[in-house]
Amino acid sequence: MILRFIYPRFRKFLESHKELDNFLGKYLVGNYTMPPSLAIPILAALTPDEHEVRLTDDNFGDPIDYDEKLDAVIISCFTPQAQRAYEIADEYRKRGTTVLMGGIHPTALPDEAKLHADSVCIGEGEPVWPQILADLKAKSLKPFYKATAVYSLEQFPNPKRNIFRQDIYKWNAHLVLTTRGCPVQCDGCPIPDKEGIQVRLRPIENIVDDIRTMPYKQFYFTDDTIMLPGKKYSKFMLNLMERTKELDVSIFVASTMMMLPDPQFYKKLAKGGVSSMYTVFGFDRVSQQLFDRSCTKEQWQAGIDLVKMNEDAGIHFFASIGIGFDNQDRSVVDRILKFCRDANIDLAEFYIPTPFPGTPFGRRADAEGRILHRNYDVWNHGNIVFKPLNFTETELMDDFYTLWKCFYSGIEPSSTLRTFDISKASS
Ligand code: SF4
Description:
The model has no long low-confidence stretch (mean pLDDT 91). The chain is 33% helix and 15% strand. The chain has two domains: 2-28 and 37-146, Rossmann fold (3-Layer(aba) Sandwich), CATH 3.40.50.280; 172-424, pyruvate-formate lyase- activating enzyme. The chain is an alpha/beta fold. It binds iron/sulfur cluster. The site of iron/sulfur cluster has 12 residues, from α7.
């Protein structure tokens, strides 16, 4: 069979905020310049050689020949890609080409995706991919596929990353999968719904083998579960670091503020090659508490200490901070900037929460009638697509700009916002 994978175009986080360009300067933040998600490279690796696999990187601007003779088109998408994914799917189907869809967005809204596809894969694709291929060949594709058993990462293949052109994505850190699933169930995260609430750890040998097969030196471990504070995770991370330190690599790690408060741990991560800690604030309980009015002096200091533990170990702390959550009001601008100053954070991005389908926040915003529209093109953390609780939409957009501008220019926010004094917080 001839199969064509499509990676749909999506509007980048700051694409509609040109006025922020001057403030970003040398930083490659807010641009989604990282290599594409591993979903397509994984399925490509799991496809037997008897089939021909082709790729359209619509995100890069590859032209699409809708009249090409194909056995199927497979489109994987997350929410900011969904609108474009549906457009492409509809064009192919008009011409009689079979379309399959999968990924985070179709998993969360399978009935919506089914309006544009012959078949939708719900959840992880790996366990059902052999069945999908067999059914495609037999021309007996089912409307939906959903794995009945949890996929074991013992069988995880090395993704075929070179299906994508590697030279066009400016950021050189190549994605490496380390875990699947998460028990934490943060308000804005789709992972527990899509991958389940048990963490599955990818075998360390398997990760090391994957890294060794790549001719690169920079990697991004995208799964923030590896930084959760439980013993199971820290032991896994340290065992992994024992192996990566032999490889002379630079590793970018993702986390929330729910990370281990142990300076030695970060020193060992640094020895294993970890050079950057991308830390998302806003979804987990620790960072929510940090910017809440009820934050105590001790909680504030604990947050600063976490940043310091990373920096002292030589790991650059990169903060990704959300504004507009239901527990925040306009005074949070001052708290966020004060925290960045107190913790000496010099690299940050700021985002607006997006009520993604398949997340508790998304379900709540929907149930409360607070979704403003479903133009998924702008559901990308850079735009307001839900009705905020304690901000008007104009105020939230102003405050989003204020954060970017004040952080990168060092200018103080307007005096009306300068009301926060942590020394007056309770202990
Ligand atoms: S944000 Fe991270 S810690 Fe929270 S549920 Fe998602 S994967 Fe788990």
